[in-house]
Amino acid sequence: MLHLRRTRVASISLSSHLKARTAASGPRPCLRFAASNERRKYSTSSDSYLTRSMVIQLLSNIGSKREVKQYLSYFSSVSSQQFAVIKVGGAIITEHLESLTSALVFLNHVGLFPVVVHGAGPQLNKLLEDAGIKPHFEEGIRVTDSKTLAVARRLFLEENLKLVEKLEEMGVHARPITSGVFGADYLDKEKYKLVGKITNVNKIPIEAAINSGSLPILTSMAETDDGQILNVNADVAAGELARVLQPLKIVYLSENGGLFNADTKEKISTINLDEEYDHIMSQWWCRFGTRLKIKETKQLLDLLPRSSSVAIIHPDDLQKELFTDTGAGTLIRRGNKIATASSISEFEDIERLKNALTKNNQGLEAKETMDKYVQDLESREFKAYFDEPMDALAIVLPATSTESPANLTMFKVTKSGWLSNTADNVFSAVKKDHPKLVWTVPQDDENLTWFFDKADGSIAKKDNILFWYGIEKANEVIERVIQFPTQNGSTLGILDFGTGLHHKVTSRLSTGVFEPQQSRNFSTIPRQLIRRKSQKIKNPISKGYATTTNPNPPFGKKNSSNFQPAKVALIGARGYTGQALVSLLNTHPYMDLCHVSSRELVGQKLKGYEKREITYENLTVEDVCRMERNAEIDCWVMALPNGVCKPFIDAINQGKNSRGSLIIDLSADYRFNNDWTYGLPELVVRSDISKAVRISNPGCYATAAQLGIAPLAPFIGGQPTIFGVSGYSGAGTKPSPKNDVKNLTDNIIPYSLTDHIHEREISTQLGVSVAFIPHVADWFQGIHHTISIPLSKTMSSRDIRQLYQERYAGERLVRIIGESPSVKAISGKHWIEIGGFGVHSSGKRVIVCATIDNLLKGAATQCLQNMNLALGFAEYQGIPLE
């Protein structure tokens, strides 16, 4: 199972403390290490000792003292270069240099020496573009010619020195290492040119830097045997470095702060590869960059000791990830598979079980108590959960009914079990089987914070704390646990039984005096109840639009799981919408437009796209089928008139490859097909769009009308009427009276007075019958809707405006204004504006006005928004928001 970690409650900034300390005391004395690769021994002056103590004290603000000391001891138990390899992306250096250097200073002040390797991809892209060199990628690998390499070498040196100088400025010695570490051969000289495949790693420069008291800062450049410099991906370089150094931690610093489950949009806390890899890789959301990262991580960790793990985190959270049990980003480790047993006979070695139960409790009395415990288990129904070396062992007595909780009667974890997070893995297995659980822990347990993190609520009584999850009412917890049935005259109700504690807890539970007190130190309110108080009420009408704060908030950067360019084919590129989409794709960092098809423009050069030179083609259905079969395209965009694209859709379906591609249709052909997902992200569940492979893009009129009506759906008292006026670009490029400028001058033309296809679309999607009358006017682009909505209850203009503001809270492409919006103001903008909110004197009818650019949010921008969601990019990537 995936473990979704709590959001970081608070961050701690250490740079000001450390800078002040450095300024007051002069340069920080270096920690000196022997040249041996064995466990390091170091001495410090009194000043560096005080600095180290101060930092350890600060660490205690983000974790318990037990956690800090435990992890610090763990990280100090290996040679210096075996602590951690930290890969730093170029964007981190540009955007988060202060956070990065503060974190590295922090680690150095407690005597740790991470090996840092960095890239500079985003900076390189910009420099190349400024120099007139177009970045070229093949299969996600940068094709590096001599000009590109020359720019890259200069840039890597500058970025390396920027990081080194910042560390030195903060009182930490750092050594730039820009060559001499990575040996390489050409990856594929003909295909990728000057790109290297690392063949060997030289540790000597790294060890020399650490032995001199300096942090080693490496670039990801490699060299051939004859001295040719080759470009290497920084992730690859970090992995190869880890294979040689075999560190406890391999850390990838990321702006996203971890990997995300694209279904729930929650950060994935932990992945135990031995237990979960096959399951995760089978999930629909595990794709693109997320899938590649998990696969590459498994390949790396399979070659490293089980003690090694990979962390993907934001630089702000580095300390919390390294020094607390709960962490902050995504932790990936091999772990151990969790076994279960439901009877004593299922344990292969009873003595091994007894040894696990008596860890930390020695002596004859402990052995006798343990023997009695095992004897009691022989006559009880229970389920045990444990890893192969029994570093973590849980024993659960099952619930006596569907309403009652199970009882976690034993939870024994070794030091290794805590440090390797095996405890989390075992507890997750327990939670999977038991939706309701209670357990008791001594108040002086050094792992108390871990148990609080696992619980929904708790009650303290004298020497112990009662924890639970899955139970909604505190009094129900008390009642259930006090009356928890005993068998054979004894109760198994503790997690760590020294004999005296065993007796006290047993007698207390059996006499039923575990009631809460006013003086208790811990909350008894389940976190689940707190969450429920803020849950949104859905509208009972059709689509379930909410009437309170946005129930379908934007995914934003949380959707970003794919960092490989997506190959796009645009069929029907001649029209205005196709041209607008080309312009958006041109500035999108991950969209790679490869083919444009237009029968009328075949052979001409595509204008407005600068990433590569593209010539219009006239793709046939046979071409499309072949391209799909060969997996040449990731996303097909159909920008064709209504009733035209079906042969192309059929061809794609016929040529379907194992990977499958995304199709987005801009016509109305599939808007009423239940096999397709309707792509209006603000009103349709975003996770449905992110899973989809067939998306029908909504119509321009329909988008504005639905967004203009949806918040009031529960209060509609009759049929809404929509008076819509569009610029003549909405009539397409084919000449007609509706796009004849002379005919439209000083004129407005109504058309399709009844049964317009958008009337059906709006009514179907909203679940409310509407009347829609479209018109075309003499401006080029932009739509204005005046919508009259009968109300089922009396409402004020202020109430209605607040309703819209709350419903669209956080939406970057919906803007609520007070006055009526204008077409002139919306033309060329990528969002919709909604305003007016004029209420009739009766209070039972409101006029809502909405404006939208029919070519952008009404078509191309919405298409790109859907592409981003379905292809795993940030939702608003490539969309101008100002």
Automatic annotation (TrEMBL):
Keyword terms, alphabetized: Amino-acid biosynthesis, Arginine biosynthesis, ATP-binding, Kinase, Mitochondrion, Multifunctional enzyme, NADP, Nucleotide-binding, Oxidoreductase, Transferase, Transit peptide
Pathway(s) the chain acts in: Amino-acid biosynthesis; L-arginine biosynthesis; N(2)-acetyl-L-ornithine from L-glutamate: step 3/4; Amino-acid biosynthesis; L-arginine biosynthesis; N(2)-acetyl-L-ornithine from L-glutamate: step 2/4
Gene3D superfamilies referenced in this protein's UniProt entry, alphabetically: 3.40.630.30, Acetylglutamate kinase-like, Dihydrodipicolinate Reductase, domain 2, NAD(P)-binding Rossmann-like Domain
Main location: mitochondrion
A molecular-function term among this protein's GO annotations: NADP+ binding
Domain of life: Eukaryota
UniProt keyword DNA damage present: no
Gene Ontology process terms (BP): L-arginine biosynthetic process
Domain N-acetyltransferase residue range list: 339-492
Family annotation (InterPro entries): AceGlu_kinase-like_sf, AcgluKinase_fam, AGPR_AS, AGPR_dimerisation_dom, AGPR_type-1, Asp/Glu/Uridylate_kinase, NAD(P)-bd_dom_sf, NAGK-fArgBP
GO cellular component: mitochondrial matrix
Presence of the UniProt keyword rRNA-binding in the record: no
Pfam family, one: NAT
Subcellular location field: Mitochondrion
Active site: 700
Homology family: In the C-terminal section; belongs to the NAGSA dehydrogenase family. In the N-terminal section; belongs to the acetylglutamate kinase family.
Name the record gives this protein: Protein arg-6, mitochondrial
Origin species: Golovinomyces cichoracearum
